[in-house]
Amino acid sequence: MLADALSLLVRVLEAGGLGLTLALILLALHLRRRRAIQYDGLQVEASPALDKVLLQDLPDPDPLYDFDLETATVRNFIYANKTMRYPYYQVSSHTYLSETCCTEVSRDQTMAHQPMHINHWIEIDKEYRWYLDEKARVIKGQGKVVVDSLPENDEACGELLELLADYLPKRYPTLFKREACDSITNLVTGERFDAVGARKGVDALLVVSRLVQDDFLMGRERLDGQIYLVGGLIAFPGTYLLSQTINKPLEVLHAPVPDFNKKLLVSVERTLKRFRPDQPFERSSWNIMDDRNLFWHNIASGLPDKDMRPQDLWLRIDHQTFRKLPRTRAIIFGVRPIMRRIEDLADSPLVPMLLEKVHTESAEHLLKYKGVQKYGGLLLPYLRKLTRSQIERGLISGKDDVRSFRELLGDKGLPVPSLQTPLSVPTESERRKALREGAAA
Length: 441
Hints:
The chain is of the alpha+beta class. The protein has helices at about 1-15, 15-40, 50-55, 130-140, 155-170, 200-210, 240-245, 250-255, 260-275, 350-360, 365-370, 370-390, 405-410, 430-440, and strands at about 95, 105, 115, 145-150, 175, 185, 190-195, 215-220, 225-235, 280-290, 315-325, 330-340. The strands form three sheets. The protein has a seven-stranded antiparallel beta sheet. The protein is globular and about 60 Å long.
């Protein structure tokens, strides 16, 4: 058995001396055979014993001793992770496996996956308190609709909590503290959580909800070779519900996504099965939304309010992180929604023009999936207005290639824009709607 052989190899490695030399020779032979098996297209069962031999421990995150929660911002994902791109596409029909980061990329296009630096796993900003309060409100009102775990996933929930309890005080020592080896204290909220290592299932996920702004979906490969959603904390899905997706495989979960099952399913599943705990990666996705309700945006099931101002539409970017837990082998898919009002893009050179081109020149089935038929009439004229303003102010020439919007900042010596309307403050459109509904009542 492969597992037995690898366990023996681990014991030999621990012995050192001549045994170490022999072990290294055996390991090299095994890796050669393993690579041949993978690239012949055959499946190799994931092995924790193999990971114990191969695993290169991730470094601890760099501590942010001077972190200021009142002014902190996350990376601007309009510019990071290739979130915004033109031409816009969902997938490429020709992909290959990158040996360096174990993610699927395209020969002529990219799915925008990239290796993730450990510092970027959890990003905290000045909206931290609002996110945690909003998450608590959603969990209280929705319960198992947003937080749940199948029995096969309960141990993984505990391991995720342990991983966060180790990571957060190291990365954010001014926000979190380990007052005991099995506890974590949130210095922002004043909450202390003990017996971290003993918590499992939903109990562990509820603690997670009081630590970070991120949601977490949790997947596992079953004996049929498919990866299933087996639990998670998903308080801010925006357009779907955990209760309607738990216990379903990727093929079913992504059926509504254009071209996914036809062009991407096999390669994505292969990536998620093969990547190791020391190979985290990240990507981002975007959508246009009409309110601040991260749990369920109005536009997901309705139309924007009749008095909606176009500048009060939101660009929602989901920063998505992928990690594999070393002990339970669970696949952890983190999702952190970041919201920017469309008006916040006024000083981002070429970005309004880029968004307009994406919405007018992309494949019809992709735009329909994005929901452009609901918001296009509001958004597009406003984007053109922002572009004209940028030309008049000399930010762009009007003849620039929109694909170079990232490079343009460097050419002009401009910093990456950081303006971000607070989610804690209602927009003018929301205030008008509330006044109208109050008067009608």
